[in-house]
Amino acid sequence: MKSKKVGKLGKAVALIVALLMVVSLAVPAFAQDTKTASGPVVSMTEPKEVVFEARMSADTKVSDLKWYFGDKELSAWKKWSMETGDFTAGPFITFTKEPVIENGLLKATISFDRLFDTTDLSQRRPYNIRLKYPEFIGTYELKAVNETGQQQAKLDVSLVPYESYMSYDQMKAAVADIKNSAKADRFVNLEVYGTTVQGRPMDLGIIAKDKEAVDEYLNETTPMMLENPEKMIADIKANKADYKTVIFMNNIHPDEQPGVDAVVKLFNDYAKEDFIDYATTDENGKKVNKRINVDKLLEDFILVFSFTQNPDGRVANTRTNANNLDLNRDNGFQTQPETQAMAAQISKYNPLIFLDYHGFVQEFLIEPCTPPHDPNYETDLLYSTMLELAHIMGRAGVENSKYEDYLIPMIDYGTGWDDATSAYTATYAMHHGALGHTIEVPEMNEDSFKAAIHTGYAAADYAINNKDMLMLNKLEYYKRGVEKLDSREADKAIVNAQNEIKGRPRGNNESFFPDYYVIPMGLDAQKNAVAAFDMVAYLERNGVKVHELKSDAGAYKKGDIVIDMAQAKRGYANHVLYSGVDESEWAEMYAEIVTNFPAQRGFDVMEVRDANLFTGKLGDVTISKAPSSSITDAKFYLIHNNSLETVKAVNHAIEMGHKVVRADLGQGKEGFAVDKACLEMLVDKHALKFEALDKMPEGKEITSKTVYAPAMSTAYFALEAMGFDVVTDASKADVLVTDSGSLDPELIGTKPMVAIGGSAMAAIGESGKIAGLEVKTTDFYHEGLLKSTNNASSMYSLGYASDDTMYSSSGTWIEKLPAGFTALSTVKNTGDYFVAGWWPGHEQVKGKVMSAVGMVNGQKTVLYAGNLTNRLHTQYLYRWISNAVYELQ
Length: 889
What we know:
The longest helix is centred in the middle third of the chain and has 20 residues, at 446-465. The strands form nine sheets. Strands 33, 34, 35, 36, 38, 39, 41, 42, 43 and 44 form a ten-stranded mixed β-sheet that branches. A hairpin with a 4-residue loop joins strand 10 and strand 11 (151-160). The protein is globular. By secondary structure, it is of the alpha+beta class. The relative contact order is 0.07. It is built from 22 helices and 44 strands.
């Protein structure tokens, strides 16, 4: 159920207080002749009156004065109209009390209304004022000008979105000041935990009783939690444990501004205050006054603050980072430096509670989520306390703002706000045993800021009162991993669309989790050793223990990487390494759920269900770089087309003026032929699989070409990562690559083209430029990893197996090929064609074409219905694009 403010008396009191506040907003300030005095702050989202007083010459008349705000007369300032998308509504600035001059003193009361005629600057439809309002932030001169007497009185007035709003520079200055002015008996520190795409520091605030408390937590408590949770459980139950744990606060979407400001405010209050007093209500709606003793809080907790995970976005006022990627879809994939840095911090601190501040859901949303839930969570140890905490935070937020309600997706939505993905920061934190809550404030204004900070107070109060219970649940989460327990209690939250318990998908196995995963590292056993090596770093960054096989065991060789699933983070290891699940029975899902690094990054992994296979044979990882073949005395070599690194190397060689020939010699010998001098240059910078050749084979020589891609698209960044010369002006390109639905149809058939994904395919289909092409889509949000059959005789599929996988995040396929087009990849027509994802109606794609090539107006055109660059995670599929670019030259 939801919490509401109750009673007519309570609302009447609130109204009286509001009226008193309005009266108090009349701010007297004296403006001096030709001098600017420090003046008031005016909010774009709340009306405010400013009392203007200034000494004028004795002969000044009111009728002689012209009034300005900035460089415009007051009458020229209008409010925004959502109907016209411009400032065409009523006046923004008016006189509440008309100007008068008494004994040489000019007096006026000036009223500032809401600049955008709303209390909420988050609105994006029908016109996006979230992008518009920053243009008006600043300090303006409020002036009365006597042009006859050449005299003016002026007052500086700051115009801000809401009272507690801070720009990026103000935020940086504020947190530095908080650190310097914090209470002397507390450890208050700022660290840089990462660097953004544009090189900005990612700041982390830490508050603790003292530095020793942080060191003890990281060096003693954390190892015990992860390695010996059973002992710590026993110590807590015996009242022998003196330990601290962590509450972590974050913002990731910086254009959802109250979240940034709330994290800074919480940092300020916990750094400076002895006590934090606030009001809330209990479950029956009765008002309760709360007091947090901050010193007592710090006896038990370390507080960690990421003011924003996306500083570049804060500067630009964008949701995305500087690579135009939504970081809150990348916490699992970790293609960006910002998400890599945050993952490392969550893995380091293993928080008890993780709060991720967002906006804007009008109903004031606080997680936990709807089903389907990721089966890799220990759901029974998370959801009951998350639900309780969500209510407590919601009631505190409501009591201290204008909002009268909040909602919790788990109980207020049937579906559509799920946690089946690690894409979101809060759901990612849940994989580390945290109570991970996304908090979506309703609006961009002061009330949403207040609601947000009070959820932070309430979370701390809840943690103080329930520390041992919460910690025991977290330790049990880790214990199940360490002791390889697949608890059937976790099954209860894993339900089908009819809300019937279906449990973890164990198949015929006793346990959902295998005993081990093995990543082969030998060049002959691993199809992509570079991706395999990169996965080791990924797992370690995410707190997963990784070992190296020290001697052969069964089919596995010395040097192979082994993930022993008897560990605290076994759930996350399984989440990224297993094939995934089919959730297509659900009517709604929020974002992509296919993680599957082996398929999406393109390396081999083996699941092992033999508990004793590697006993006594595992040691620390010693491999320091990806394996690479060795150069011999041969004059020519074939570089296998098996990785993104190969494409980088080929483009590097071309750039340096070397000859590169594309060759398919059969029997797995597919790739690029180069001479020894070229290869010697490449191996210094690239880890490659190659073999000696007797001679330079016949084949197409690859030359340097300029490739077009839409600006800031994933296709652009994928091509750039492969080392192509990428431009955003189609007229300057030799080859066109697009993943955009805004493709200019007049470009079709003018140059060689590669079209990728549902949006581009739909645009081409609707253009009518390719006669006979029929494209079908169930929904652009549908997603699936599909088993496919590739055209092995085509150079477009060079380096891919005949039996492989294809991925779509746009529910699209080619229903009918145009005359003269040849299929390159087709979904298998077998019962197991659908591997994982959310694609209602996916039976329609069974046996259908996913990619094809043909001629349009004499220009080669390649169509990929799959999403080859989705969120830059699908790097295994990038070579479909490079193959096409090379072939289209």
